[in-house]
Amino acid sequence: MPTIAVDKAALFKELGRDYTTEEFDELCFEFGIELDEDTSQSTKPEDQAQPPQLKIEIPANRYDMLCFEGIALNLKVFLEKEKLPKWQVTPPKDGQLQELHIKPETAQVRELCSGVILRGIKFTQARYDSFIALQDKLHQNLARQRTLVSIGTHDLDTVKGPFTYEALKPEEIEFIPLNQTKKMNGKQLMEFYEKDKHLGRYLHIIRDSPLYPVIYDANRTVMSLPPIINGDHSKITLDTKNVFIEITATDKTKVEIVNHMLIAMFAGYAESIEAIKIISPHNNESRESPDLSPRKWKAEVDYLNNVTGLDLSPEEISKLLAKMGHDVSPSKTDKNILDVSVPITRADILHQADIMEDYSIAYGFNKLPRVYPNKTAAVSAPLPINKLADIVRLESASAGWTEVMPLILCSHEENFEWLNRVDDGKTAIKLANPKTAEYQLVRTSLLPGLLKTINSNKHHSVPMKIFEVSDVGFKDESKERKSRNERHFAAAIMGKTSGFEQVHGLLDRLMLMLRSKFMTREDGLKNAALEGYWIEEVEDKTFLPGHAASVKINLAGKNHTIGVFGILHPSVLHKFELPYPVSTVEFNLEVFL
Amino acid sequence: MTGTRGPVPVPLETQGQNLTQDVLDLLDTKETLQSNEDFPAVPQRDIKAALDRLASRSMVEYKTLDKEQVNLTPESEGIVANGSHEFKVWKAVKEAGKIAIKELPSIVGKESASVGQGNAFKNKWIKKDGTDLVLVATEEPEDSMQKLLKGIQESQTVSDAKQLNDLKKKRLVTVTKVITYTVTKGPKYAKEMPVEHTDLTADLLASGAWETANFKPYNFAALGAQQDAGALHPLMKVRQEFRNIFFSQGFVEMPTGHFVDSGFWNFDALFVPQQHPARDMQDTFFVSDPPTADKPRADPDSERQMDQMEASSQRLFSTGDKREKKPRDFEKYWNDVKKVHEDGAFGSIGYRYKFKDEETLRLVLRTHTTAVSTWALHRLAEDPRPARYFSIDRVFRNETVDATHLAEFHQIEGVIADFGLTLGGLQRFLGDFFANMGLENLRFKPAYNPYTEPSMEIFGYHKGLKRWIEIGNSGMFRPEMLEPMGLPKDMRVYGFGLSLERPTMMKYGVSNIRELLGHKVDLSWIKEQPAVRFDKE
């Protein structure tokens, strides 16, 4: 969630009163934003050095509150101090709209461009800073680090229309970038900003494209190289009167949302909003931008009342929705319908469910009638594998073993090499983007976690007896998700002696609790219908030769090998840095379902 | 020693001296013992141990006497032996008749010269004659200091507090605390310690000797024997409490047995747009191998588990009428999800962006178990009816690990589907849910979540911390999520969730999540945590 810092005194002046921190916190809570910090209560020198600020967390879909202007406006409307403005475009004096011609080649790199002109704007330092900060917030959030949308703002009086949006080879584009003194071409610019902390992270968006997007004025002055940087020539200053905003994008919806947000937040400081004429016949995007008409919605009164559990009249609902910025009037033809005009600021309204939410917020979440929703009795049930796992967990703890919960993710080495196991490439689920080597794959065995737990508890007295009942993961081509979990049981004991009989005894105990009888290998092999388990020596590099056994079981007429136990090979102890002998047992629980 | 059982001799000897027996012997000859007089050489600790041993068996009774004892310093011991400094000066002058002041230290010593000369003047025993000292008192004077100290040496007390302070300041005496015991016979006094049994044994029972046996008194102030106990993990104990709440409210547990999910189930079906930050490499673990998922299709394993769990409610609520089942059409579901994102549908204008099929097939480690709730709700659309589902299982976030974040944690999730549900009803339900954990008077804050509308953050007042804390998230699932599944428009679904770790950290006072989950957790800590009883805390 973005956090916006606003000047406390200025905001309270807008709201027409002072608030204590608690009062303002309460207002935020009810409206659905969050007061993160009031720096007037901070003891940090950097906070005390400047006028008190309120740091406010904004929900990720409220792009209309990413700056001081938006927060003040929405709160004023919520508090019924004023109504949301009705933004409208005004034609220029000469009737001639500025034109922006979009060349077809731009489709290869960044297809869309939109824009607007704010005439007669009056900047102050605070307004100017807020204007820049809002663009930055939009770039970070809605525009996904400028990949989807990027904004360029220009002093209209330094350039001359018609403007063109083109895509050219990097070497062919030459200009002085914003706040630089040297002219450079597209290629040089990429090198120049390579190490730039702020801009470096955007270069990848176009760097490898054969053509770079660029905006020219009628005199072939480069205005910007979106989404990286503007030209120095047309930069805005505190004295700029007329602002030309161009917005390039790969997302058709978001480009206009950004346009709307800039207008709604800053047209209040301007004399008029002027449309531009976009000429883009190759992709049917020719139009006049922006379209500031509110979206017309029809909301159902019974739906709004049913979901909220309220029973208010259409007029009352309309009044409440006005607090959230909507212009609402009950339909003249249908008593159950409200005609809702959704303002350009509310791009988050997608469905009447969103209008219903606004209705509940305006009414007050915490004033809604709280009625227990028990319409029908229900019958509870535990997941069978969890029920089974709980049996094994309780029996293991009753037998004197301690439950541990290591992580599911582990390194490749821990899961394979350190256990003397080989990765056949068909077993383990591997991760594409872990931040550390600790999380390379989903474990295929519970052993690495148990051994790491013992390693972290070397200070603990021995013998140390631990167990875990949890899932491991495997690749599985037959499944929709190409993988599956398997519930395993595992235990480990470390002591001065190997503890082999201990894990063996625990295995016997659990088998007894799971109604599986011990029998001889001969009996088990002779008759698969004879239910029970046996163990047989196995060669397994994880264990000391001659001291490993696999667990075999006959269940429902079928024979399964469910696991293995033994004394860990000293090389395994060495890798996991364990000072004493360790024996382990691990088996699959799913066969007992 | 732990585990020692049966008759054992009482340890009577201390450093070669059978002190316990000595006390018994002496008491046979005299009524009352004074430890300082009768055993002056025995350290206090030893005599106390012997007396305790006897007193615990009622063989003796004793009183403890604390008193202060005044002792002479080496300097004052010298005064007692040779007279005070002033006396030494007088004596020297008397013997020599006349002493040059300069010479005095070499005759009586430096210390006696400096202190004694002044005092002898004051006492008018000697006087100055030019640079010499000569006698005033010709008869031997009374040495009162020597007399005082001698008296103290005998009585070891000074009754005048001011005088005692004065002497202490002059470093002539020191004060020590002395504990002495006055010992008399107890009701079970005997001349010898009897043989004692530490425990009732099978032999004592068999022989009948227990009837006359002497049992060593039990030390009720000490802890009992260490239990070689196993233990359940505290996190799992809290999980069980949550499961019990869910079961008491008729919830069915969802089949969460797959850590890996597709972009479709984890995000798209939940109406999370493909450009949402949660789908960034920064936040989500993507799977590189296996490379891609199949398009959504039937999952017989999960299906079987759900059927098994719902068998009981099917039997109970069956009316005999055959219910129309509308089999799931996965292809249509996928297309409708795509449509609602791309163009809008079901009364929504959608996000209006180019929906990429390959994004839906990317495999991720599930970032929430809501992916499984989505599956369960789609299944419910075959036969829409009131339903309650829950799960508590592991989820994954590609986060930088710190005191409150791990790449893995457990999500608790509950889902209630019914016709005509209201938002206030969810608040009421959650009020009861959290009241079971002792959190009452919940408040709800409007919030944003891509798949719920309205979305409410749940706040509870924490009595310990004395402030409102966020304890979970909740909301009603969006129509854009439910209607593509084929659920009817008037069926509404609550969803709520919280992590298992956060309430556990609060319950057990853990501030670092790494001390709770993962291999670094201390085994002793696991063993020592008490049982969890939400209703008692």
Blueprint (SSEs and pairs):
The complex is a heterodimer of chains A (593) and B (537).
Chain A (H helix, E strand, L loop, with lengths): L2 E5 H8 L5 H11 L2 E5 L6 H4 L4 E5 L10 H11 L19 E5 L9 E8 L5 H16 L8 E7 L7 E6 L5 E2 L8 E2 H8 L18 E5 L5 E4 L3 E2 L12 E7 L2 H15 L5 E3 L1 E4 L7 E3 L5 E6 H8 L5 H9 L4 E4 L6 E6 L9 H12 L20 H15 L3 E2 L5 E2 L1 H4 L14 E2 L9 E2 L4 H10 L7 E12 L7 E12 L5 H14 L7 H6 L5 E6 L5 E13 L2 E11 L1 H6 L6 E7 L5
Parallel strand pairs in A: 4-7, 4-15, 20-24
Antiparallel strand pairs in A: 1-3, 2-3, 5-13, 5-14, 6-13, 7-10, 8-9, 10-11, 11-12, 15-16, 17-19, 18-19, 21-23, 24-25, 25-29, 26-27, 27-28, 28-29
Helix pairs in contact in A: 8-10, 11-14
Chain B lengths: L6 E2 L10 H11 L3 E2 H4 L5 H12 L4 E13 L1 H9 L2 H12 L1 E3 L3 H5 L1 H13 L3 E4 L2 E4 L8 H12 L5 H9 L3 E13 L10 E2 L4 H6 L26 H15 L3 E2 L6 E3 H4 L20 E3 L10 H18 L12 H13 L14 H5 L1 E3 L4 H11 L6 E10 L11 E12 L3 H13 L7 E7 L2 E11 L4 E11 L1 H4 L8 E9 L1 H8 L14 H6 L9
Parallel strand pairs in B: 9-13
Antiparallel strand pairs in B: 1-8, 2-7, 3-7, 4-6, 5-6, 10-12, 13-14, 14-18, 15-16, 16-17, 17-18
Helix pairs in contact in B: 4-8, 5-7
Q: Using CB atoms under 8 Å apart, which protein chain pair has the greatest interface?
A: A-B, 103 and 117 residues
* Number of separate strands of chain B: 18
The CATH topology assignment of the largest domain in chain A is BirA Bifunctional Protein, domain 2
What's the total count of β strands of chain A?
29
The biggest beta sheet of chain B is recorded as: 7 strands, mixed
- The CATH topology of the largest domain in chain B is given as BirA Bifunctional Protein, domain 2
Tell me the number of helical segments of chain B per DSSP (H or I, 4 or more residues long).
20
Taken as a percent bin, the fraction of beta residues of chain A is: 25-35%
Give unreliable regions of chain B as ranges: 1-9
Percent range for β-strand residues of chain B:
15-25%
CATH class of the largest domain in chain A: Alpha Beta
CATH architecture of the largest domain in chain B: 2-Layer Sandwich
Name the helicity range of chain B.
Answer: 25-40%
Low-pLDDT segments, ≥5 res of chain A: none
Helical stretch tally of chain A: 16
